[in-house]
Design brief:
With 1023 residues, this protein is an alpha/beta fold. It has 29 helices and 38 strands. Strands 1, 2, 3, 4, 5, 6, 7, 8 and 9 form a 9-stranded mixed beta sheet that branches. Strands 30, 31, 32, 33, 34, 35, 36 and 37 form an 8-stranded mixed beta sheet that branches. Strands 11, 13, 14, 15, 17, 18 and 19 form a 7-stranded mixed beta sheet that branches. The radius of gyration is 34 Å and the shape is globular.
Amino acid sequence: MSPEENKSFYRVSPIKTSQAGIGARGIKMPIDILLGLPGYATSGSNFPGAAFNLAGGLSILLRNHAEVASKMLAPHVWAPGLDNSSLAAFAESPVNGRLEPFIYDTKRLRVAQFPGQAKQRRKDYEIVHFCGKITPQGKLLLDEQGADLSLESLSKALGASRTRLLIFDAIDQQSFDNAASLATLAESLGLAILRVHARSSAARDEYLMNVYANLVHNRQLVEMTTPGYWYENELQIELTYPQGSEDTLNFNRWMAALEKRLVRAESRVERISKMEEKIQDYSPVLHTKQVTRLFSEKIREAIDNSSGQLRESLETLRSIRHTTWDHERDGAAFLPAMAEAARMVDHATLEAALSLPQSGAIEEEIRNAPRVINTNFAEDSGRVVPLEESLQAGATYDLLVDIGPRWNRFPSLLGENAEFPEEAIGELVSEEEKQQGWFDVEAVFVSEQFSPNLVSARMRVPLLAIGRSIPYKGQSQELADRPGPVHLRVSAPQTANKKETLRAHGRLCLYYGAQVIQSAVLDIGIQRQAGLVQETLNSGLVDYVLTPGFRAVEETIATRRLSENGEAVPVKVGLMLNDDLSGSHRLLLKMHDAQQAETASLPPAWKSYDAGMIQSVLERARSILVNPAGQSLASYNSESFLLDKFKDDLTALGKLGAELYSILLQGITPGGSLSPLAWRKKFRSALQPGDVIQLARAGSVPSAHIIPWALVYEIPIEPGHSEKPFKICRVVDEQWDKVTAARKPAYRQQGFAACPYEHEHETNVICPFGFWGYKYTLEQPLSALHSKGWDIEPARRVLADIPIKVAVAATEDVPRKSRYQAHFESIRQAVSAEYLPAGLARERDEFRDSLRAPQIVYILCHGGKDGKVTTLSIGPRDKDAKHTITPDLPGNWGEHDYIDLEKWEETRPLVFINGCYTTDLLPELTLDFVSAFRDLMVGGVIGTEIEVTVEFGYQAAERFFEHLGRGAGVGQAILSMRWDLLNQGSFIGLAYTPYAMSDMHLERSSSAAPSPATPAACISNDR
């Protein structure tokens, strides 16, 4: 009778589970296997035959591979009833009558604790094999005195041990039946459970030997555990596993990773060889020392040693990957060697690749011509205008822009201040673009004096440093026949009379996707006659650089990973406040979506803005956010007064936010032929919940020009439209409690990316999901500006110790000291913090000393003005200078070595300024301290821009650090914090603004040794 006809003694129970478990990741060798033998299993007269000899069985299986056996399958034994000599004798005892030379070191078999026991040191066991009993209550019996492991304890222990397969080898029928309860572990942990009960030790040994043999032969889980039909009367077997995890013990993923690693090394060899060929092509014109400097003998030696091993390793790996394994072919035996070969070759080729000359070195040695932005105006004849010559008023010119070696025949407006951030761009591009060897940049010129006011054109930039950019033909996807500049066609402004001379200004931006990677202002002389010489030269100045380079190859600025396990998403929209020295200010807006061709082609747009209007809206936002509806709770009489006020507040904020949206987009002028109305419609429809919007400031935009971006409300509102009164979206009544105005428990776990009734949103609908601050991820990166001597890349991570070192300065002017202490204890636990100083800094010198080398800086303070100087107040509320921090102090401390600047550059700390309970807190305060801390190479600054009460200030910081500690990036942590507060009926989360990259996150140092965190008892107001 075939096994397919009768398998009643072998049951397979696949179950559905949402828990992927550790099995979702590929397994690696060695596979650690723990055999658990409680004392009662080893004390009987029929021992050792009563227990499966794991070490002996594996010795038999791997007898031909003694030299690599421990690198393949590593047995461990928990047997508290056996002394060392008894354990060694058991390990060397026959397995089903077979006794082979022992290949494992018996001294290393023993483990002192079974997973789940007290004081057990965490150890990964891919397979846990327990031979013993289980109680009717589902508890694993560890000894006859009653010590046991509950299902809950066992679940935690196996989860901590990252176990993939639990084998329960029942020593009696009752335990086999009781072990049915173990099936719940498959659902909760995503691991497989194999229950076995044998009527004879011979049948058990033979079956389990086959199971482990099938493991070595890379069998699927069901095939690995399937018995022969001849065991029908000897065994009871049940396999329970999560559907989709049949390959949890396969090596396929590991082999794929090994192959990928070897292919990556192979790619490096090819790349290094091509680099050598390139350098050799130029060798006739280079000195011998130059060739040696560019490509050393050490690199050549590494490649020669790696190439042969690479080919052999790849051929062997690909052969066993596509071969059905059996005991003769011994496919698994090659894998440890493959892993070691992959590691060594990967290391050698990586070291060689890192020794290759950087692009700057190649430019210097080969062409001595660094790649720059070249730009200047050219006449219709093609003549480029000299810097000392003014443009003719009303005449038409082409603004030429390219990226490449510095022009040697024509003058460039940017001159020495034109270094292009090539290292950053090399990391900006996608993998596909890297393979093709180029990336696209869009040049945008905007000016209120030249016409048209906005022109743009695309160019393709080669990755090779010696290459010059190639323009696209118009708006088509077709490239020009040869490298050269793009032509931005503009007309110079008119002058009032023949003698008048004026200075015209414009801004040139280079975009990668939706992000401005570099921006410059142009200053040009205009006169009525052509060819006139002027005293002031035409010139340009680069005043915004997003990033000059990257230190980590894997991190790119093209995408953001907003949470630890989230997908990488691109920046969808870029908005830049800027000026061009003309005295006016404007907003430049660019949208890009690589997945949607229509959106990707949406041209950039611009509009000037009224600084006075922005200031007026900001002042109203400051007062409205504190009490949006402007009414006290006493004026509401119904039972649902809290929800009634919540709705009134929501309406007031919506009206203000809609005004902001109108200020931003009404009157906007797109480039190209698209009408403003069509552009706005496409812009609105293209934005999707969760999109990343980047906000930037370039040039000399005053710090008073603060736009509360989080308050922008995108659902159309017409306050004077009598036929459509304001209507609260029904999501509010459904999800917010009528009495408490807090979000109902049933909805707390719902996603908050989009309103479920978005299809009902029409004019004058008020909904929380209409605010940018609740719908999108907003980031305001710290610009590198134009100081080439110390420009730094934008921080993507805070390199933190365990525990995280947090410098804390705190005001004492707060009510309820117990809540004050609980606040700092909450933050300490959220990020596993060690406070510097332990008792919190309340004086300036204490705070200065805590800034030596922190990873987070948290300031709970009052903010205000002392004349024209912004200040932060800590300690008691008085005028004493020792309790006051001004923006100049961090720089002074860094200059005089109180601050370890090298450590700050390595760590890139995050600064959180929580200005609570003060009406003197102005938006420019935050910006002043942003600039101050930026000079110290800080990673990001978070600040409040309006009055915040103490309790909500506490909650905002606590929720933010809670999400940050769980792996969220700064943007996602701010967004989640805002929703946490909104779920409590408060809009105050909109008052917090992050000046940082949205995916900046905590990265724990793997080499950091844990140390005791600051105890809560140390946090006190008592001196």
